[in-house]
Amino acid sequence: MSWQTYVDDHLMCEIENTGAHLSSAAILGFDGSVWAQSHNFPKFKPEEITYIMKDFEEPGYLAPIGLFLAGAKYMVIQGEPGAVVRGKKGSGGITIKKTGQALIFGIYEEPVTPGQCNIVVEKIGDYLVDQGY
Q: CB 3.0-4.6 Å disulfide test: which of 9, 41, 51, 96 passes with 26?
């Protein structure tokens, strides 16, 4: 299966038969290289990925400064140290799952809930971990 298929069929899928979908999603390498992304995934800056990786290495690093992606600032909310970073911005937010080799991004807006985004992103992330990625 191609990386793009994971994004298109598993991250951008319909959520729980609601007709809702994530706003955008991507799979990136730790260096910020794009493995696959939805057509509208924001154009991020390399240093933003560096800061996200630093939070995985030093949990809580982003809490005082916020998580930035494409210049948009997200308030960091409780995640799983070293495994998941979550952020909130207005009625939407972001979930980032770290696997052994990649970062799985899901960005959402209402009516998608934070919990629904977490499930979608973390499920595919856990699957990739189980597959050695």
A: 41
Task: Assess whether the previous peptide bond of 111 is cis (omega < 30° from 0).
Answer: yes
Q: How far apart are CA 87 and CA 36, in angstroms?
A: 21
Widest pairwise Cα distance in the chain = 39
Give every CB contact of residue 51 below 8 A, 6+ residues apart in sequence. Answer: 61, 62, 65, 67, 68
56, amino acid identity? F
Q: Which of 20, 52, 5, 24 is nearest to 116 (CA)?
A: 20
Contact of 93 with 117, CB cutoff 8 Å: yes
Sign of the Cα torsion 4, 71, 30, 105 reads: negative
Count the helix, strand and coil residues of the chain and give each as a percent rounded to the nearest 5.
30, 30, 40
Q: Which two tokens stand for residue 89?
A: 């911005």
What are the pLDDT digits (tens) for 43-66? 999 999 999 999 999 999 999 999
DSSP 3-state of 19: coil
For the full predicted model, state whether its pTM sits above 0.90.
yes
